[in-house]
Specification:
By secondary structure, the protein is an alpha+beta fold. It contains 36 helices and 31 strands. Helix 23 crosses helix 27 (823-840). It starts with 40 loop residues before the first strand and ends in a 13-residue tail after the last strand.
């Protein structure tokens, strides 16, 4: 189970200058993804389905993509001049000693396709392995990982990951990790528990920061306190409802305990876990490494200490570093701070045994799973999936080639309407979407593939199984057409050419899945070789695919079929079982044990409230580390596109995009009839899914994949930065392509904009509606915090209300209705979408355009293509007449702060409180932004997470939207957390509580978000979408740097204290009666009020 265990809920950079609302980005490039400027890795597959069997780490790379022009697409790797950082690594030789002889070089390999060189070393004394990837990249990465192999579901590896970061030998204060989050300019900090290893990665562009974090991480990993109090806080504990009164109800608490109740609270999570357990009946992957809430309370503190002693040892460690810092300095510091204190330990007993392969076909297995929060058809709630165990990546000689081939095969089977299982399963109408866990997974020692359907009628399960077998046998007989393979390989090339923001981290995560088991640590960098091998294999053997599928599917006896049977009382039964278990414990407690529970609770609170001397931790200084000047991208806004009589402004961003061009067109939707607003997200989602007058939807998807990085449409708003002008509502159409394909891609955008089949594809629309309804219904529980915040903000902000109507609970409810109404629902949608297209996709509605590409011919090619695009659009569209428009609706909005509880089948809660504040250019906007960071770190983390037991809690200010919000995540509490939000505001308003030290830390947290590396394709995006010019950005930055403690305190008093916040909680049904008595409006997962039952 992956655990982004330490991620705090804090304000993000996107909330300062959002380039687009994420929910509206449909199959489009991420034009403003932040991070380091490097080529991306393919995570989870070749641009295909990324779901994995069972729980795994989201960042685990399956394969890396090659650079443009590499052998993956048939060319030789380009010669390149090595940067000093790369040359230094490349100059190492096997056998060479480093760090005063502490380390010995084992191997050195240049990877010119990625402009890096990699050295693997061994620590002579302990046998610890080290891999360094030298690169011309200032965003340096460190990661240390330990093979952690659970033998049960008590979550020992996960709880250890948490407690290890709660104080250490050199830094004995409470929670150095969260303290360092606000004392650093890190671009990434976290700790994660995967299925078979635990890792501690960070990244930063500041050299001082790098060595500060290195010291803290090494001390946490190798010399943690692991105190009993920290175990009680992070793992599990018994506590009376009133901590000091043993006569009150006994309860179970703990951060990980509540985290996993939330993580395992969805049908998707439970089914995926069951599928993994059945496929791996004898190995470590049978168990939930994150911990099952039912078993977590059985873990003891003693077990934790023993697990650390045997697993967190250098002999069981894998170190990874990346970037342009000299390797030797890191090796010397690591030897000094940690490794010199250890001797070699025999860790062979930690080796993961291969799964015992089945020798005969297995019987179908049925498991109970929770129901989704909302389902369109009560008679179709079963889930069925077939899973196969495949490549042993450690022992099989051709593992690299077959693994890559199966990644490609997974894409061909699952990705897009032209995919084989799309036709045989999704278009069959047997289910509402692919089953959880569908896809190819290579994040573990042995790879696997799973495919199935959710939303199936129980009687149709055998038919689904038959169709799966028939599809796989068809490939085993006929193979794949080469042109389809070529389209996937184009995506490999395009993905490699895109300048990414997470290359170093991607390699770090991608390596561990095999490297911790003694396999190839360079696996994420092998794609060029494996792609070339695949092309050669296909050329040499026309039966390659047939043989592969016969071996891995048809003749593979290690397969399982799991059927998930929905149980509406699943969560209630778990809650009842937990209460019964605790009641049984309570009934057997002696007075002495009761006193001990009370004492432990009091001691824990005392520890949590005790002042901490954070000065023992290293820190950066804002005055030294944060420049006053903004980064300028030199966008050119002087040009005008001309096509006949049409003239439109275009923004040109010349950036090092590595041969990929990005284009964006904004269409004004201000006069769209408001009655069409509920269908806007469907319009964006379906725009490339219905085919055009020239191509059916399957051919369109195939061609789009062959020439472009995807065509996307989203709906967004641009709020006035000064709070005076009207809000702009626009449709954003975007695309990306290799420079050689830009003209063809813009022709395709024209084809879609002018000729999409909004009418006449009823069967296709019906299928898309069914899938979207199922997806939305299952999303409410897993995205509870987002829904809670969206509900709350929608009652105080017109722009948020527009978002909520198109993507919140009203959208969920509408989708269920449309899916149930079938033909009538399809007809309604077709009519609405065709109207939106007629109103919007015209040349007179084009507001502005943007091109981001390398300098030179690429600019003119893109400009010419956009002029052609403009000329092909119809000149004028429909008019709203006397109808209420979107703009009218925004202007008529009246705030009415909510107080609502949304009941959703699950065991934890998500609380949100939102306040309307000021516009971006207001003098108080910057202090409010800093106040969000300050409240998160200095108050809410302690009260909501440490004391309350929630997995996360914090505050955030969104300057552009003018919203200040507080929220909690996977929270056992409801009204108690809302009270903590209110107390946080009061606390901040009291003179002396906010200090210069807190302000300094808030500044560091703010600027790590604002100054995080930005991919070249996103440079200038905030100017394009939000009209945020250099002057306004500089003013905001100056106000941040000049902000005082008193300004933050005054803002807390003015905007938070004695104000009426909008409140919303997405939570467990068990809380309904309590929340009704507290005066909350009670709603179901579709946003419909649940009336109180009146007993006659």
């Amino acid at each position: 189970m992956m655990s982004c265990a330490r991620a705090a809920l804090t304000t993000r950079a996107s909330q300062i200058c959002p380039t687009s609302r994420a929910r509206n980005l449909v199959r489009a490039h991420d034009s403003a993804k932040r991070g380091m400027s490097r080529r991306p890795l393919l995570l989870g597959g070749v641009a295909g389905v990324t779901a994995r069997l069972g729980s795994g780490f989201a960042a685990n790379a399956v394969e890396a993509a090659p650079e443009k022009g590499s052998t993956a697409v048939g060319g030789d790797a380009p010669a390149a001049v090595m940067s000093p950082a790369v040359a230094l690594v490349a100059s190492l030789v096997p056998g060479q000693k480093l760090a005063n002889g502490a380390f010995q070089v084992v191997s050195v390999e240049r990877v010119p396709e990625y402009s890096v060189a990699v050295a693997e070393l061994v620590h002579v004394k302990t046998g610890a392995r080290w891999m360094h990837c030298g690169a011309d990249d200032g965003n340096n990465v460190f990661n240390v990982a330990f093979r952690t192999t659970p033998t049960d579901d008590r979550g020992v590896a996960h709880i250890l990951e948490h407690t290890a970061l709660c104080g250490s030998e050199k830094y004995p204060i409470r929670d150095p990790f969260f303290n360092m989050l606000r004392r650093s300019l890190s671009t990434f900090m976290n700790a994660m528990t995967a299925a078979d290893y635990t890792c501690y990665p960070f990244a930063t562009m500041n050299t001082t920061d790098y060595f500060n974090l290195l010291g803290v991480y090494l001390d946490a990993a190798f010399f943690p306190k692991l105190s009993y109090e920290d175990f009680l806080q992070e793992g599990h504990r018994l506590e009376f409802a009133s901590k000091e009164d043993s006569k009150t109800e006994l309860t179970l608490k703990g951060v990980v305990f509540n985290e996993m109740k939330g993580a395992m609270g969805s049908q998707s999570a439970r089914f995926s876990r069951a599928l993994s357990a059945e496929l791996f009946p004898t190995s470590t992957y049978h168990h939930n490494s994150g911990g099952d809430p039912v078993a977590i309370p059985d873990l003891t503190h003693d077990d934790l200490l023993k697990f650390h002693a045997t697993h967190y040892h250098p002999s069981n460690a894998r170190f990874y570093t990346y970037g342009d810092l000299p390797l030797e300095a890191t090796l010397l510091k690591t030897e000094e701070l940690a490794l010199a204190r250890f001797d070699k330990l025999d860790v062979s007993f930690l080796e993961v045994a291969d799964e015992k392969r089945f020798t005969s076909k297995q019987q179908r297995v049925e498991v109970n799973v929770p129901t989704d929060a909302v389902v369109p058809d009560q008679n179709k709630q079963t889930t069925v999936s077939r899973a196969y165990l495949m490549v042993n990546q450690i022992k099989e000689p051709d593992a690299g080639l077959e693994n890559f081939a199966l990644v490609v095969a997974s894409d061909l089977l699952l990705s897009g309407p032209q995919a084989y299982f799309h036709e045989s399963l999704l278009e069959s109408g047997l289910g509402s979407g692919f089953a959880p866990g569908t896809g190819y997974s290579s994040s573990r020692r042995e790879t696997s593939f799973a495919v199935g359907l959710k939303g199936v009628a129980a009687e149709d399960v055998p038919t689904v199984e038959r169709k799966i077998e028939e599809t796989l046998h068809k490939i085993a007989k006929d193979g794949f057409p080469r042109e389809r393979v070529d389209a996937v390989m184009h995506q490999v090339e395009l993905s490699a050419a895109r300048v990414s923001t997470n290359f170093g981290l991607g390699v770090a995560f991608g390596a561990m899945g095999t490297w911790v088991h003694g396999g190839d640590g360079l696996r994420p960098l092998r794609t060029p070789q494996n792609a070339a091998k695949l092309q050669l294999a296909l050329d040499a053997d026309p039966q390659f695919w047939q043989k592969l599928f016969k071996k891995r599917f048809v003749d593979n006896l290690h397969e399982v079929t799991v059927v998930g049977v929905p149980d509406a009382e699943y969560d209630a039964k778990l809650e009842a079982a937990e209460k019964a278990k605790v009641a049984a414990i309570a009934s057997g407690l002696s007075e002495e044990k009761k006193k001990r529970i009370v004492t432990e609770a009091i001691d824990l609170v005392t520890s949590q409230d005790a002042p901490q001397d954070a000065s023992v931790l290293p820190t950066l200084k804002v005055a030294e580390a944060v420049p006053r000047e903004i980064k300028k991208w030199n966008s050119d806004v002087s040009r005008t596109l001309v096509s006949g009589t049409i003239k439109k402004p275009v923004q040109i961003d010349v950036q090092p995009t590595n041969g990929v061009t990005y284009v964006n067109v904004l269409f004004d939707m201000s006069d769209l009839p408001d009655r069409l607003t509920p269908y806007l997200d469907l319009f964006a989602d379906f725009v490339t899914e219905l085919g055009t007058k020239q191509r059916n939807y399957k051919d369109l998807a195939q061609y789009e994949k062959l020439i472009s990085g995807g065509i996307g449409v989203g709906v967004d708003t641009r709020q006035s930065l000064d709070g005076v002008g009207a809000t702009e509502v626009f449709l954003s159409m975007s695309g990306s392509a290799l420079d050689r394909n830009v003209s063809d891609t813009l022709d395709l955008m024209t084809e879609i904009a002018t000729g999409a089949n909004w009418l006449g594809e009823s069967d296709r629309v019906g299928l898309l509606l069914s899938r979207r309804a199922a997806s939305a219904g299952s999303s409410v529980a897993s995205n509870g915090m987002q829904y809670a915040k969206a509900f709350a903000t929608s009652t105080i902000s017109p722009e948020s209300e527009l978002d909520y109507r198109t993507a919140g609970l009203p959208h969920v409810a509408m989708l269920q209705r449309l899916a149930r109404e079938k033909k009538d629902g399809v007809a309604e949608v077709e009519k609405a979408l065709s109207e939106i297209a007629a109103f919007t996709l015209t040349s007179d509605k084009v507001s502005r355009l943007r091109v981001a590409c390398v300098p030179g011919d690429a600019v003119e090619v893109a400009v010419a293509g956009l002029e052609k695009f403009l000329g092909k659009l119809p000149a004028g569209g429909a008019a709203a007449g006397k109808e209420t428009t979107v703009t009218d609706s925004l202007a008529a909005f009246k705030p009415n702060p909510s107080r609502a509880f949304i009941s959703v089948p699950q065991q934890t809660n998500y609380c949100a409180a939102a306040y309307k504040t000021v516009d971006y250019q207001h003098a108080d906007s910057a202090p409010l932004y800093l106040l969000g960071h300050a409240l998160s770190s200095a108050y809410l983390h302690r009260e909501v997470r440490e004391k309350g037991g929630a997995y996360g809690g914090g505050a955030s200010a969104s300057p552009v939207e003018g919203i200040f919000a507080m929220s909690s995540y996977r929270d056992p509490n409801t009204t108690g957390t809302i009270e903590a939000f209110e107390k946080a505001a009061v606390w901040a308003s009291v003179a002396g509580n906010l200090t210069p030290e807190i302000l300094e830390e808030a500044h560091l947290k703010a600027f790590k978000a604002i100054d995080a590396p930005l991919a070249p394709s996103g440079r200038g995006a905030s100017l394009f979408t939000n009209m945020m010019d250099d002057a306004s950005r500089q003013t905001f930055r100056d106000r941040l740097l000049d902000c005082t403690v008193e300004q933050m305190r005054v803002c807390a008093t003015k905007y938070l204290v004695n104000q009426t916040p909008a409140l919303a909680i997405v939570g467990a049904p068990a809380n309904v009666d309590k929340m009704r008595k507290a005066g909350y409006l009670i709603l179901n997962a579709e946003g419909i009020e649940i009336k109180e039952e009146v007993v006659a």
